[in-house]
Amino acid sequence: MKIIPLLLITVLLAANGAQAECDYDDFPLMPDMLVATIGSNIQWNHTPMAGRSFRVPANLATVKDFYAKAWADEVDFSAFNGWEQILHINQQCMMMIQVKRQNERFSFGQMVITNPPGSAVAAQVLGDGMPVPPGAHVVSDMRSDDDIRQGRLVLLLNEEDMHTTARWYETDLKQQGWTLDQRSQQTNGMVLSYSRGRELMTVGLLRHQDKTQILLNRMDR
């Protein structure tokens, strides 16, 4: 899950007041890099995102060295969830590489471009149309709509404990016509699986420190 880094990037872009946009013609490509589309019409916190996958005959050090030179002083390196991340932010957009070692000869990963949100996008409410408990804070809101499936992934934080939060969802979703198909529980976590017609919804709950993390995954089938 790449929720927190991309949320921070969105904030940075909005703060910079960038107005122009980037596309993949602006993205530096390594020699012999094979690139493919991995999604269409994807939005993260109402910000349009374009994604590509890639495979390249180079090790991680060579990939990082290439983008360090391509983006000169406007590059940042980090690691997240097993991926090496290479981040570039300019006055037009954000570009990011996430890369892993495939074998001794090849590396693979994703390229992401995020363009700045417009005024109409900024006015939209994160989590709108999804079941959000009173007082819960929406951390991120991702939409993925294509010809095959429409999906929504929303992360929330709630002050209420996990069991109180679960009871809220069981009551609210039942009133909305959802059917609880499966419930699984561990010490600090719980998953509720629902269906309604052609729609599926999974509610994942995790108690961490003094907050309950809620991950809502909604899609059609």
Secondary-structure blueprint:
Blueprint: H1 3-16, E1 34-37, E2 42-44, E3 47-56, H2 60-70, E4 76-80, E5 83-89, E6 94-101, E7 107-114, H3 119-122, E8 137-145, E9 150-158, H4 162-175, E10 179-185, E11 189-196, E12 199-208, E13 211-220
Antiparallel strand pairs: 1-3, 2-3, 2-8, 3-7, 4-5, 5-6, 6-7, 8-9, 9-13, 10-11, 11-12, 12-13
Q: Provide a count of the helices.
A: 4
> Which spans have pLDDT < 50 for at least 5 consecutive residues?
1-19, 119-123
Rough outline: elongated
List how many beta strands DSSP finds: 13
From the N-terminal CA to the C-terminal CA, the straight-line distance is 22 Å
Q: Main beta sheet, described?
A: 13 strands, antiparallel
Q: How would you describe the oligomerization state of the chains in this entry? A: single chain
Radius of gyration: 20 Å
Mean pLDDT figure: 80
Strand content: 35-45%
Q: What helical percentage do the residues reach?
A: 10-25%
Structural class: alpha+beta
What is the N-to-C order of secondary-structure elements (H for helix, E for strand)?
HEEEHEEEEHEEHEEEE
Structural account:
By secondary structure, the chain is of the alpha+beta class. Strands 1, 2, 3, 4, 5, 6, 7, 8, 9, 10, 11, 12 and 13 form a 13-stranded antiparallel sheet that branches. The chain starts with a helix and ends with a strand.
